[in-house]
Design goal:
six-stranded mixed sheet; globular; binds NADPH dihydro-nicotinamide-adenine-dinucleotide phosphate; single chain; Aldehyde Dehydrogenase, Chain A, domain 2; Aldehyde Dehydrogenase, Chain A, domain 1
C-alpha cells in the first residue's frame, strides 16, 4: 500500500515522519497508509505559512473576499457531502446518519464564519477628551489546530473556518487514528482558491507532530480539542511562550431526570445523550441522575430500551451503535466495566462484546448501564469515552446540585422537567459550559461552546469563536490639533 501524501504549504508531498496506518473500526481492515510530518516538516509548514501571511494577497484581502473563499469551501463540501460522510464512516466507525450530520455541520460552519468575517465590527470607544479612540481586530499570525478522532471534519471545520476568516494561516494536525477527512478538506480548500501556504494538514502522532507544532516559536496560538491530560501539557507550553490557547477537553456530564419530566422524552434524551457516537463524545451524558421517586420505574424502562438499541455495521442506515474507534479503546472501555464491578456496581445490561459473528472482527461493544455506585466512585468520576452510563439516584434539588457539581469536569448538562422555574434554577446552579433543557446534544454554530473546570478554557463557535483567533489593537487619534502640554 503506497502512502497518501500530506499537504504542506500548498504542496502534496511525503513527510519525513514514519507513515501511519488508518483502519476501519468495523473490521480493523487497513483503510489507508498516510505520510506523517516530523519536526522539520512542521518547521517548513510554519515558514511557508509565515510567507503566505506576509504576501499582499492575503494581508490585503478584504473580509468579504476571504468570505467568498470560505463560501466556496462550504459549497464544495456540500457537493462532495455523501462521499465525505462515507469516508468518515470508514475512518471513524460512526453510523452513517451521524457522519452525514457532521459533514452538514462542517458546511454550516464555513458558511457561518464567512458571514461573520464579512460583518465583524471593530469598536469606536467612548472618548474622554478631544480624540478618537478605536479598538481594531487583527489576525494572530500562524495558528495550530489539533483535533481528536471522534468528530473529524466537524472539529477541523470549527477551527479552520474561524482561523482563516480572521485572516490567519492555519496548520492542522488531525488525530493519527482519523487523518483522512482533514486531508480531504485541504483538497477542497485548494479547489476553492485558498492561496497557497495558508493551510497545511500534517498528519502524525501527538508526541512528534503535535508536540513540534505546539512548541514552534512561529505558532502564535493553539486551538486544541482532546483529552484533559494532553490539554494541560499544551497549556504549559503555551504559558512558556505567552501564547493564547483554546482547550476543548473532556467531560463527565450530568443528565438529570426529575419526577415531573415527560418520561418518554427523557428516556429518548438519556439514550441519545450517552449512547450516540458509541458514547465517544466529550458531551456524553454519562452520569444519569434520576429522582429517587421514579428511579426504579425509569431505570427498568431505560434498561429495556438500551437492550433494544440496534448495534451493527455503521454503513446500515438503521444502525444506532457502531464500533469503537480501536481495539485499544475497546480494552479501555471494557476495563471500566470491570472497574464498575470491582467498585460494587451492578451491570444492568451490556458491557460485553456482541455475539453476532458478523461483528466479531470489529471493535463492537454492547451499551452498558451501571447502578449501585455512588458519585464518588472512579466509574462516576473518570471520563470513559464509551457507551457506559452510570445511574445515580438523588433526593431533592440541593442533593442533586451538590452531586452534579462534585466533578472535576464542567462541560455539559441535561435537565428533564416540565417545571420551567426549576429548569432555570438548576441550569444556573450547575457548573457547566452548556446546559440543555428537555433536549440534549443540540448545537448551533451561532452559540458559543466550551467547558468549565477541567473541561477546558475558552469558547469555540459564534462571534466569540472568531475573535478568539484575533487580537485587539487600540488606536488613539488626536482631534484637537494642540501640541501635548508636557513638553512646553
Ligand atoms: P488526545 O488528547 O489523546 O488527542 C487529541 C489530539 O492531540 C490528537 O490529535 C493527538 O494526537 C494530539 N496530541 C496528543 N499528545 C499531544 C502532545 N503532547 N502535543 C500536541 N498534540 C498532542 O485525545 P483523543 O484523540 O483520545 O480524544 C478524546 C478526548 O477528546 C476525550 O477526552 C474527549 O473528551 C476530548 N474531546 C473534547 C471535545 C470538546 O469539544 N470539549 C470534543 C471531542 C473530544 P494523536 O492522535 O497522535 O494521539
Amino acid at each position: 500500500m503506497s502512502s497518501l501524501p500530506l499537504y504542506l504549504g500548498g504542496e502534496w508531498r511525503m513527510g519525513r515522519g514514519a507513515p501511519i496506518l488508518t483502519r476501519n473500526p468495523h473490521d480493523n481492515a487497513a483503510l489507508a497508509e498516510v505520510s506523517t510530518a516530523d519536526a522539520s516538516d512542521v518547521g517548513e509548514a510554519v515558514a511557508r505559512a509565515q510567507q503566505a501571511m506576509a504576501a499582499p494577497g492575503w494581508r490585503t484581502m478584504l473580509p468579504h473576499q476571504r468570505a467568498l473563499i470560505l463560501q466556496r469551501i462550504a459549497a464544495l463540501i456540500e457537493r462532495d457531502a455523501e462521499r465525505l460522510a462515507q469516508l468518515q464512516r470508514q475512518d471513524n466507525g460512526k453510523p452513517i446518519h451521524e457522519t452525514r450530520a457532521l459533514v452538514a455541520s462542517a458546511i454550516g460552519t464555513f458558511r457561518y464564519f464567512a458571514a461573520a468575517c464579512e460583518t465583524l465590527d471593530g469598536d469606536v470607544t467612548p472618548a474622554r477628551g478631544d480624540y478618537l479612540s478605536m479598538s481594531l481586530y487583527e489576525p494572530l499570525g500562524v495558528v495550530a489546530a489539533i483535533t481528536p478522532w471522534n468528530s473529524p471534519i466537524a472539529s477541523e471545520a470549527q477551527k479552520i473556518a474561524p482561523a482563516l476568516a480572521a485572516g490567519n494561516a492555519v496548520i492542522v494536525k488531525p488525530s493519527e487514528l482519523t487523518p483522512l477527512l482533514a486531508l480531504e478538506l485541504a483538497k477542497l480548500a485548494t479547489e476553492a482558491g485558498l492561496p497557497e501556504g495558508l493551510l497545511s494538514v500534517l498528519p502524525g502522532t501527538g508526541a512528534i507532530t503535535g508536540a513540534a507544532l505546539v512548541a514552534h516559536p512561529g505558532i502564535r496560538k493553539v486551538s486544541f480539542t482532546g483529552g484533559t491530560v494532553t490539554g494541560r501539557a499544551i497549556g504549559r507550553v503555551a504559558a512558556d511562550k505567552v501564547m493564547p490557547v483554546s482547550l476543548e477537553l473532556g467531560g463527565k456530564s450530568p443528565n438529570i431526570v426529575f419526577e415531573d419530566a415527560d418520561i418518554a422524552q427523557a428516556i429518548n434524551g438519556v439514550l441519545f445523550g450517552i449512547f450516540s457516537s458509541q458514547g465517544q463524545s466529550c458531551i456524553a451524558g454519562s452520569r444519569i441522575f434520576v429522582a429517587r421517586g421514579i428511579y426504579d420505574r425509569f431505570v427498568t424502562e431505560l434498561t429495556r430500551r438500551t437492550q433494544a438499541l440496534r448495534i451493527g455495521n455503521p454503513a446500515e442506515p438503521s444502525t444506532q451503535i457502531g464500533p469503537l474507534i480501536s481495539p485499544e479503546h475497546l480494552d479501555k472501555v471494557n476495563g471500566y466495566v470491570r472497574l464498575a464491578r470491582e467498585e460494587g456496581g451492578r451491570i444492568l445490561c451490556g458491557g460485553s462484546r456482541p455475539t453476532d459473528a458478523a461483528l466479531a472482527a470489529g471493535n463492537y461493544f454492547q451499551p452498558a448501564l451501571v447502578d449501585g455506585l455512588s458519585n464518588a466512585c472512579r466509574t462516576a468520576r473518570e471520563e470513559i469515552f464509551g457507551p457506559v452510563g452510570v445511574l445515580l439516584p438523588f433526593d431533592g434539588e440541593d442533593d442533586l446540585v451538590r452531586q452534579a457539581n462534585d466533578s472535576a469536569y464542567g462541560l455539559a448538562c441535561g435537565i428533564w422537567t416540565i417545571d420551567y422555574r426549576r429548569a432555570w434554577r438548576i441550569a444556573r446552579a450547575v457548573d457547566a459550559g452548556t446546559v440543555w433543557i428537555n433536549t440534549y446534544k443540540l448545537f448551533s454554530i451561532a452559540t458559543p461552546f466550551g467547558g468549565n473546570k477541567d473541561s477546558g478554557l475558552g469558547r469555540e463557535k459564534a462571534l466569540d469563536g472568531l475573535r478568539a483567533y484575533m487580537r485587539q489593537k487600540s488606536l488613539y487619534w488626536d482631534m484637537s490639533g494642540r501640541p501635548l502640554p508636557w513638553a512646553d
